[in-house]
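tool=predict chain=A
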Amino acid sequence: MTATTKVPVCAACDRPQTEVPLISLAYLNTTLWICPQHLPVLIHNPQMLTGRIPGAENMKAADHQD
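tool=predict ok
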């Protein structure tokens, strides 16, 4: 990362990679980051990330076949 690049933080909780592991996501020609604790939110309740991930309000939750 360069000096002008923002430090990766979780899209849900804003914690940096120095505090939690982060998983990178390629979305809308950019890289987003999410921690394992909030990955289920992205899968099951993506609307909860509205304002944090562009277009989250239009994402659908996973369709379970339990």
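The CA atoms of residues 27 and 40 lie 17 Å apart. Residues 39-44 form the longest helix (6 residues).
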